[in-house]
Amino acid sequence: MIILRLDRVMADRKISLNELSEKVGVSNVNLSKLKTGKVSAVRFSTLNAICKALHCQPGDILEFIDDDTENDSPS
């Protein structure tokens, strides 16, 4: 499972949704969906613009969590 950590990076950088929206050129509504993780996909061009505006790496925003770890443990 991929978790979006945009809210955490924004808080670390002390940047508001409105300010990021202006810098990235993406609507507040779409950024808000990204921030809350209510999306199933993100364009590389959007991810590129967000990383540029926040001076971060994609890995700072996206986190992989193995949701099969319960199935991998010995019984």
What is the helix content? 55-70%
Poorly predicted residue ranges: none
Order of helices and strands: EHHHHHEH
Average pLDDT reading: 91
* CATH fourth-tier homologous superfamily: lambda repressor-like DNA-binding domains
Give the class-level CATH name: Mainly Alpha
Largest sheet: 2 strands, antiparallel
Q: Write down how many β-strands occur, each being a DSSP E stretch of 2 or more residues.
A: 2
> Between the first and last Cα atoms, what is the distance in angstroms?
23 Å
Q: In terms of structural class, how would the helical and strand content be classed?
A: mainly alpha
Q: How many individual helices?
A: 6
Rg over alpha carbons: 14 Å
Shape: globular
Please name the CATH topology. 434 Repressor (Amino-terminal Domain)
Q: For the largest beta sheet, what order do the strands appear in spatially?
A: 1-2
**What share of residues are in beta strands?**
5-15%
Total domains, how many?
A: 1
The assigned CATH architecture is Orthogonal Bundle
